[in-house]
Write a structure and sequence with these properties.
single chain; mainly alpha
Length: about 170
Amino acid sequence: SILVPRVSDSGYGRKGPYAASVVVSLISYIAIYLSTSIYITILVFLCLGLCAGGRVCVGLVYMNEFVPLRYHNLTTTIYNLGDSCILLFQAPIYAYVPDWMAVHSVVFFIIVCQLIALLLIPESPKFMYANRRFDMARQLLKVVARKNKAKVSNEEIDNIMFEFEFMEFEVVEE
């Protein structure tokens, strides 16, 4: 929870740390299904809590890097409402719903869907740009443009000169 957001900002990308948090969450939910000990279950829930920072914080940043700026407030609000509702309803579900494993099955399904989506979603071009990996950012922009059926050619994307890249180019020229 403390390390994953920092790792995602330090040059490793968003996708890897986010995927690691999702995989650990998935393993934790499997452990909950299989657990017959309250102590192991408590330990697994601790593990789920430690993964929450990676899933929620890094997931939110990763998602917003693909969303147009004008929708950031809306998507962030919806994302945080969903996460908060889980916390609000978790205790009553465990206290009053006799078949709480059905709830875990739904969450397990959602986490599996997140893993499948991660196989299809590339690293963020914004992250590559911020870390001065301009060629990789261009490659990812080509993928995004192709998926979005944008009317921009690969040559146009290849000719993009990023602001930081331009500033580095000017310094070298002097």
